[in-house]
């Protein structure tokens, strides 16, 4: 990776941002458009420093195995599995593509970025138990969730998650599901591996280079203006296609490009904090990821969870997130990010959300006012015997939730998830939003290459199907293909224990 722009020439493709999305897109283009020249610009000194960094995201490997917000219950108690099924299917696509990259020479061992960890959903109270039973009944009927276990036995749960059950009131009603097919993913490590492989085949990756301008030229190309963060030197390249995968920084750059498709979109930044412990005794007693239910008024990204993490070869536990707030769109951003993102074309959307999301505002204020002891009390709801001295607070990444105009009402709505923005002519695109972004990066970027490079996809479909055997097919309705894909990815990614 280079910090010098002297070698930068006019490429076919420019990727803005050195995170998991750009890394994934570079790898996919290596399959469907191997003759295209690609240049990556990352403003930080290293790639994967923001949302893709291991400590800046949950690293769950979102497959909807344990995240309860993906399986909402209706007024009649029935659980809707549609979103969970979609997310799990998308994660299976990611695993297939990662397996392909490992087979074709991805540097290092799969254990550097993915490891097996059971995923557990945990609730308390009679209402929680009724919901968990309904959720288990609905999901276990789906082929993608085969093997999902249920229990409301405290003694059985003590074997699944001893740290969560030790010291808990034995009369408390508890219920849980468990999938042993869960994983922990270090997206920072994966991103770096993907970029290393991309450079080996000629992709130019420039760090310390901030994209400050996107201007459409008369011949249909884009002029990309880049400023060297160290020297202040400014220069530009011209390209036929630009992808803005800059996390929270994507919104301002798409606004700078002036494309009609970004009109009406805004962003609401939310930061997060986690309590972390590296105590070997505690880590040994919690070999799982456990997700609970979000507090009333809390955004889905604030679902409490106690995660086993493997980062840089070291195990730790993370509990949270505790919501914070900053007007910055990136951890390394500016306090003017939010106010400068307000434009005449999205002011209505922003004001609409300010009026309708009072519960979220109240929740964020209460979170910001929490003392250290109050945060510890929240932890003890999950880990009854937790000692405050064993845990330290870390700040995670910034997330910019999508604000968009509702076509039906014309009002602004806050959207949790990701939004792919593609220009009408397919020459520019960007990704907004947050979870479950990283886990479903391959599906998101597949959608992009289909829209922006349709001829290349058609010409190289066989190569794409070799890389992703389920491409164009539905795993949930093809049990034989699902079984084959699972077996192959587990073996290649070394997930058999």
* Average pLDDT reading: 91
Give the DSSP E fraction (strand runs of 2 or more residues). 15-25%
Strand arrangement, largest sheet?
A: 5-6-4-14-15-16-13-17-18
The major sheet is characterized as:
9 strands, mixed
* First and last CA, distance: 34 Å
Form type: globular
Count of individual helical segments: 16
CATH class: Alpha Beta
**Structural class, from secondary structure content?**
alpha+beta
Q: Give the tally of structural domains.
A: 1
Q: And the CATH topology?
A: FAD/NAD(P)-binding domain
What radius of gyration results from the CA coordinates?
22 Å
Q: Helicity level, as a percent range?
A: 25-40%
Q: Under the CATH scheme, which architecture would be assigned? A: 3-Layer(bba) Sandwich
Number of strands: 20
Give the name of the CATH superfamily.
FAD/NAD(P)-binding domain
Low-confidence stretches: none
Organism: Geodermatophilus saharensis
EC number: 1.1.5.4
Pfam families: Mqo (PF06039)
Catalytic activity: (S)-malate + a quinone = a quinol + oxaloacetate
Please give a quick description of this structure:
It contains 16 helices and 20 strands. By secondary structure, it is α+β, with helices and mostly antiparallel strands.
Please give a structural write-up:
There is one protein chain. By secondary structure, the protein is of the alpha+beta class. The protein has one domain (5-467): FAD/NAD(P)-binding domain. Helices cover 33% and strands 24% of the residues. It has helices at residues 20-32, 82-103, 125-140, 154-160, 162-165, 187-200, 250-257, 280-284, 337-341, 347-356, 358-368, 372-382, 441-452, 454-459, 461-467, 479-492, and strands spanning 13-16, 38-42, 114-116, 119-124, 149-151, 174-179, 183-185, 204-207, 209-216, 222-228, 234-239, 241-244, 266-277, 289-291, 305-311, 314-324, 392-405, 412-415, 418-422, 428-433. Helix 1 (20-32) packs across helix 13. The chain is globular, with a radius of gyration of 22 Å. The model has no long low-confidence stretch (mean pLDDT 91).
């Amino acid at each position: 990776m280079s910090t010098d722009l002297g070698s930068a020439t006019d490429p076919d493709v420019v990727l803005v941002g050195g995170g998991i999305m750009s890394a994934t897109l570079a790898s996919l283009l290596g399959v469907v458009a191997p003759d295209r020249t690609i240049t990556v610009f990352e403003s930080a000194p290293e790639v994967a420093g923001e949302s893709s960094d291991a400590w800046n995201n949950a690293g769950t490997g979102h497959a909807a195995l344990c995240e309860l917000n993906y399986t909402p219950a209706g007024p009649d108690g029935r659980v809707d599995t549609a979103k969970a099924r979609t997310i799990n299917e998308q994660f299976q696509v990611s695993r297939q593509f990662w397996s392909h990259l490992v087979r074709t020479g991805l540097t290092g061992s799969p254990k550097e970025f993915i490891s097996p960890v059971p995923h557990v959903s945990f609730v308390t109270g009679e209402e929680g138990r009724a919901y968990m039973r309904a959720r288990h009944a609905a999901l276990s009927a789906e082929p993608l969730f085969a093997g999902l276990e249920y229990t409301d036995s405290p003694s059985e749960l003590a074997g699944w998650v001893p740290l969560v059950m030790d010291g808990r009131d034995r009369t408390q009603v508890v219920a849980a599901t468990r999938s042993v097919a869960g994983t922990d993913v270090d997206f920072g490590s994966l991103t770096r591996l993907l970029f290393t492989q991309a450079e080996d085949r000629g992709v130019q990756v420039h760090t310390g280079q901030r994209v400050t301008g996107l201007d459409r030229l008369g011949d249909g190309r884009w002029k990309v203006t880049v400023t060297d963060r160290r020297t202040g030197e400014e220069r530009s390249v011209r390209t036929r296609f630009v992808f803005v995968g800059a996390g929270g920084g994507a919104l301002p750059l798409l606004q700078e490009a002036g494309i009609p498709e970004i009109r009406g979109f805004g962003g609401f930044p939310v930061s997060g904090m986690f309590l972390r412990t590296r105590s070997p005794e505690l880590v040994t007693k919690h070999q799982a990821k456990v997700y609970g239910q979000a507090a009333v008024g809390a955004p889905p990204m604030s679902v409490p969870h106690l995660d086993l993490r493997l980062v840089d070869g070291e195990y730790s536990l993370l509990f949270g997130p505790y919501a914070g707030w900053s007007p910055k769109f990136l951890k390394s951003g500016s306090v003017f990010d939010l106010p400068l993102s307000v434009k005449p074309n999205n002011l209505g959307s922003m004001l609409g959300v300010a009026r309708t999301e009072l519960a979220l505002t109240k929740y964020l204020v209460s979170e910001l006012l929490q003392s250290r002891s109050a945060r510890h009390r929240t932890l003890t709801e999950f880990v009854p015997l937790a000692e405050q001295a064993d845990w330290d607070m870390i700040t995670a990444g910034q997330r910019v939730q999508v604000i968009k105009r509702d076509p039906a009402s014309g009002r602004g709505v806050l959207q949790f998830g990701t939004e792919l923005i593609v220009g009408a002519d397919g020459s520019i695109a960007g990704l907004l939003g947050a979870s479950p972004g990283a886990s479903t990066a391959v599906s998101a970027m597949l959608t992009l290459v289909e829209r922006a490079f349709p001829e290349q996809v058609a010409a190289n479909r066989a190569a794409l199907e070799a890389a992703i055997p389920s491409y164009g097919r539905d795993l949930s309705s093809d049990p034989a293909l699902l079984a084959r894909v699972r077996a192959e990815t587990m073996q290649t990614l070394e997930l058999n224990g």
